[in-house]
Amino acid sequence: MTLMIIANVVWPALYAEDKVSSMPIIALSLVIEYFFFRRLFNLNAKQAFFYTFAANLASGLVGLVGRPLSGLLYELTIGMLVSWIFEWGTFNPVAWISVPIFGGALNALLELLTIRIIWKHKLSKENFCWLWLANIITVGIATTWVIASPREI
Predict the structure, then answer these.
(1) Entry pTM
(2) What local confidence, expressed as pLDDT, does residue 55 receive?
(3) What's the number of domains the chain is made of?
(4) How far apart are alpha carbons 100 and 95 in whole angstroms?
(5) Closest listed residue to residue 110, CA positions, set 153, 67, 46
(6) What are the tens digits of pLDDT across the range 110-122?
(7) What does residue 111 show for φ and ψ, rounded to 5 degrees?
(8) Any residues with CB less than 8 A from the CB of 113 and at least 6 apart, and which?
(9) Residue 125 neighbours by CB distance under 10 Å
(10) Is residue 141 part of a domain?
(11) Which of 14, 40, 44, 144 has its CA 20 to 30 A from that of 6?
């Protein structure tokens, strides 16, 4: 049962989570991030595989709850301001654009923390930015998929 099914209130990040945690997006994320990890940490193919697997396992497990909650945090802060200024509801363009930005940032942070804990790599702003970009791409694809082909509730 997905979080969206048991929720009384739905917001864009929760709605997008159904696609973000789907097998096609997970597979795409693994492929994209494999190349990012390989380049960022100067890894061979085998090392890059393990970094990608471990980092995405951690961000996937924590992110199942963390990404929708970050969206709720957005809705209770920036989202309220956007709604007040433009008189828009929850499912507005700014909210949809924020999903890959905030979801991607959370994923990148969790993935880098995993690498820091397991392999003792130092965290850097540059690595965070590159990994954030990779996650913006994959979460952005999932968000676009939701908008183009919404799930019927």
Answers:
(1) 0.87
(2) 97
(3) 1
(4) 10
(5) 67
(6) 999 999 999 999 9
(7) -65, -40
(8) 58, 123
(9) 7
(10) yes
(11) 144
